[in-house]
Design goal:
The complex is a heterodimer of chains A (80) and B (174). With 80 residues, chain A is an alpha+beta fold. Helix content of chain A is 29%, strand content 32%. Chain B has a domain of 107 residues: DsrEFH-like (Hypothetical Protein Ychn, Chain: A), CATH 3.40.1260. Chain B contains 7 helices and 5 strands. The chains are: A alpha+beta (80), B alpha/beta (174). Chains A and B meet through helix 1 and helix 2 of A and helix 1 of B.
Chain lengths: 80, 174
């Protein structure tokens, strides 16, 4: 999905954290959302992009977009 | 729940058998990550792993007999931090306090890199309803009581764990 048309409902900054905390915090943040709402996560853990793909497959929450920019990773997740 | 229930979540069953700081991490990292993915998780704490259920964690790391452990300082420039200050076991064995030095260095290194403490990861596991099962036999051998452990810990034996693990998708020994 084109990132310019995604409007997040909540932002989680997981910068500076290493595995498994970005995934743990993502889970906690997504629990606060309603079905269909979008969570934007910013992380610096290089393991986060592959991990969030696995997390998305396992939890059923949709990974809309994953972008790497300037040593940080931005993903958009939609709650199932 | 079990595999006989088609709607049951995936299940991870772990045995945690080591109580040093370095080996305390894998079971708690895997458990919290699995729980974050909505899986059921149970950890059986046996032998030295049982100490990881104490309210106050004193897990240390020993450079002795641990030749693969990188000895790197947690401060200074990246280049300086990447220097490996490897020391022979014989020297370590005779140097008082080498274990607490190594433990403190590793804790600082983990913290500076953004790794959660073992306590924080265990709190996450408790919060996410990971089953923490202390081994009754080890308790008898080393003289522990249920009150010596965090209140969330349950007590069981080999059969308790095996029944749980039989229905698990993944079983690991740490």
């Amino acid at each position: 999905m084109d990132v310019t048309v995604i409007k997040e409902d909540q932002v989680l900054d997981a910068s500076g954290l290493l595995c498994p905390m970005p995934i743990v915090k993502t889970t906690k943040a997504i629990k606060e959302l309603q079905s269909g709402q979008i969570l934007k996560v910013i992380a610096t853990d290089a393991g986060y992009p592959p991990d969030i793909e696995a997390w998305s497959r396992q939890t059923g929450n949709l990974l809309l977009n994953s972008i790497a920019e300037d040593g940080r990773f931005v993903v958009y997740l939609q709650k199932s | 729940m079990s595999k006989s229930d088609p709607h049951a979540p995936k299940r991870l069953a772990l045995i945690s058998s080591k109580g040093t700081l370095d080996w305390a991490y894998p079971p708690f990292i895997l458990s919290s990550a699995a729980a974050a993915m909505g899986w059921e998780v149970g950890v059986f704490f046996t032998f030295y792993g049982l100490t990881l259920l104490k309210p106050k964690l004193t897990a240390a790391v020993s450079p002795l007999g641990n030749p693969a452990m990188p000895m790197k300082l947690p401060f200074g420039s990246d280049e300086f931090q990447n220097i490996n200050w490897s020391m022979p076991n014989l020297l370590m064995a005779n140097m008082p306090g080498s274990e607490s030095v190594a433990t403190n260095l590793m804790k600082q290194k983990l913290k500076s890199k953004g790794v959660a403490t073992v306590e924080e990861l265990r709190d996450v596991c408790v919060e996410m309803n990971v089953r923490l099962i202390g081994c009754q036999m080890t308790m008898d051998v080393f003289g522990f009581k249920k009150e010596d452990f965090i209140p969330e810990a349950e007590i069981g034996g080999a059969a308790t764990f095996l029944e749980y693990a039989a229905d698990a998708d993944i079983q690991l020994f740490v």
